[in-house]
Design a protein that fits this description.
The chain is of the alpha/beta class. The chain contains 10 helices and 18 strands. The site of flavin-adenine dinucleotide (FAD) has 42 residues, from helix 1, strand 12, strand 16 and helix 10.
Length: 410
C-alpha cells in the first residue's frame, strides 16, 4: 500500500519503520526541518516500565494540586473550556482509578522488547542505561505507590522494595545527606535518548521504503478520496491510507473529519547538563516520586525533567519550576552535573488524553489510522504502538491487547 504519515516525532518515525518493514511504500510529512524537533526533542529518556514515570497515569503517583506552593499542575493564563473539561476528566479518572493502567503497562513492556530488537538488529547506539530507582523520601510515599506497584507486579514487572542502604549501593552517587527512606528498584527498566534513536532510525529507514518530506505542512487529511492536502499545493496527494502521528496538532486535524479527542498540552521541562563528576552522578535513571522529577544519565550528560503546566505554547519558561529541577538534582546528586555552562533547557508539550493513555488503531473513518496522544509516555510506548498499527493495517491480530487504548473509549 501507499501510506502517508503525518508527523516525524518518535511516533511517526517508528510507525514508518514498521510499515516499511511490512513492505508498504511510506511517505512521512513533517512541518519541521528534521525528525523529533517537537515533543520528542528532549524527553526524560525513560522507557518501560511506564507506570511509575512522572505523569504516567492519573491516580498512580502524583496528587493533582492546582494551587499553592505545592501545586503539582501549574495553571497559567487562565483555563479555556477544553482544558477545564480535560482537568475534570483527569481528576475523575484519578479518583476512580479507571485509567487503563494495566493495558498501558502491557504496551510499554511490549514496546521495550520491540525497541531492543530494533536497536540490536540495526546496531543503534542511543545513550542507553539499564535499571531505575524510584526514590522515596518518606514511608508515606511508599504507601501511596502501592496501587501502582500492584499493577506492575500483576503485569510481571520485576521490582524490589529496598531500603536506603541498598539504594545507595545501586546508585553510589546518591548524596549521603539526602533524606532517603527507601526506594523501588526496577532492575529491568531502561532509558535512552529518544531524539537520537529517532534520528538513527530515520537514517536507517531512508531508502528502504520510507521517504521523508521535511518543511512540509499537512493542512488537511481527506478520506474520500484518501490523501493529504499540503500547504501551498492545490492538488490532493492520494494515498491508500493515512496514519496521524502529529502530536498535539492531531487535535486540530481531526475535527474536519468529524473526529474529536479531548487532548490537552501539559507542558514540562528538561535540563540537560554535562557530567561534572561521574561518581556523583546517576549511573542510570532515578525518579523522585514526590516531586515527579526524573534524573537520567544520557551518555556524558545528566538530564533532569519534570514540571507540569497548562499554559500556552508561547508561555515564558517558569523560573520556579526550573529552580525546582536544579534543587532536586542537588538534593540527590550534588556535584554530579555542571550547571554553570553548556546547559540545554527545553520546554515541551505532553499531548495528554484524560486517562493518560494514547489512541492507537482505527479511527472509525475509512483509510485513517491514529497513533497519537501518548502523553507522558510517547518514547516508552512508541515501538510497540508502531508495531500494533502496522499489524492492524495488515489486518493481523497484534501481539499485545489494545483493550482500553482505542478511539471507541471516547
Ligand atoms: C518534559 C517532558 C519529559 C518527557 N519524558 C518522557 C519520558 O521520559 N518517556 C516517555 O516515554 N515520554 C516522555 N515524554 C513524552 C514524550 O515526549 C511524548 O509522548 C512523545 O514525544 C510524543 O511523540 P509524538 O511523535 O506523538 O509527538 P511529536 O514529537 O510532537 O511529533 C509530532 C510531529 O508532528 C509534526 N506535525 C504536527 N502537525 C503537522 C502538520 N500539520 N504537518 C506536518 N507535520 C506536523 C510536528 O512538527 C512534530 O514533529 C516527555 C515529555 C515532556 C514534555
Amino acid at each position: 500500500m501507499k501510506i502517508a504519515i503525518v508527523g516525524a516525532g518518535i511516533i511517526g518515525v517508528t510507525t514508518a519503520y514498521e510499515l516499511a518493514r511490512d513492505g508498504h511504500e511510506v511517505t512521512i510529512f513533517e512541518q519541521r526541518s528534521a525528525a523529533a524537533e517537537e515533543a520528542s526533542f528532549a524527553t526524560a529518556g525513560l522507557l518501560g516500565p511506564h507506570l511509575l514515570s512522572p505523569w504516567a497515569v492519573p491516580g498512580f503517583g502524583q496528587a493533582l494540586r492546582l494551587i499553592g506552593p505545592h501545586a503539582t499542575l501549574r495553571v497559567a493564563g487562565g483555563l479555556n473550556r477544553a482544558n477545564w473539561a480535560w482537568l475534570r476528566r483527569w481528576r475523575g479518572a484519578a479518583r476512580s482509578n479507571s485509567a487503563p493502567a494495566a493495558a498501558l503497562e502491557r504496551l510499554a513492556q511490549y514496546s521495550l522488547t520491540r525497541l531492543k530488537a530494533i536497536a540490536r538488529q540495526h546496531e543503534l547506539d542511543f545513550e542507553t542505561s539499564e535499571g531505575r530507582l524510584v526514590l522515596l523520601r518518606t514511608e508515606q510515599e511508599r504507601a501511596h505507590l502501592q496501587p501502582a506497584l500492584q499493577v506492575l507486579r500483576d503485569s510481571g514487572v520485576s521490582l524490589h522494595e529496598i531500603d536506603a542502604d541498598v539504594a545507595r549501593q545501586i546508585e553510589p552517587g546518591l548524596s549521603p545527606e539526602a533524606p532517603l527512606a527507601g526506594a523501588i528498584h526496577l532492575p529491568d527498566a531502561s532509558a535512552g535518548n529518544c531524539r537520537l534513536f529517532a534520528q538513527l532510525l530515520r537514517q536507517g529507514t531512508q531508502g528502504s521504503g520510507v521517504q521523508f518530506v521535511f518543511n512540509t505542512r499537512v493542512d488537511r487529511i481527506s478520506t474520500q478520496p484518501t490523501g493529504v492536502a499540503l500547504q501551498g499545493e492545490p492538488d490532493l496527494r492520494r494515498f491508500d491510507a493515512v496514519v496521524l502521528c502529529a502530536g498535539m496538532a492531531s487535535a486540530t486535524l481531526m475535527p474536519a473529519l468529524g473526529l474529536r479527542l479531548p487532548m490537552a498540552a501539559v507542558y514540562g521541562y528538561s535540563v540537560s547538563a554535562p557530567l561534572r563528576e561521574s561518581t556523583h552522578a546517576p549511573r542510570a535513571s532515578v525518579v523522585d516520586a514526590a516531586q515527579q522529577i526524573s534524573i537520567t544519565r544520557l551518555g556524558q550528560r545528566v538530564r533532569i525533567a519534570g514540571g507540569a503546566e497548562l499554559a500556552g505554547a508561547d508561555a515564558h519558561h517558569h523560573t520556579p519550576t526550573l529552580q525546582r529541577l536544579y534543587r532536586t538534582l542537588n538534593d540527590w546528586f550534588p556535584g554530579g552535573a555542571q550547571l554553570s555552562s553548556s546547559l540545554q533547557i527545553w520546554r515541551g508539550a505532553r499531548t495528554m488524553l484524560p486517562d493518560g493513555a494514547p489512541v492507537v488503531g482505527a479511527s472509525g473513518v475509512p483509510g485513517l489510522w491514529l497513533n497519537t496522544g501518548h502523553g507522558a509516555g510517547g518514547w516508552a510506548l512508541a515501538c510497540g504502538s508502531a508495531r500494533v498499527v502496522a499489524d492492524l493495517v495488515a489486518q493481523r491480530e497484534p501481539d499485545v491487547s489494545l483493550d482500553g487504548l482505542g478511539m471507541r473509549r471516547f
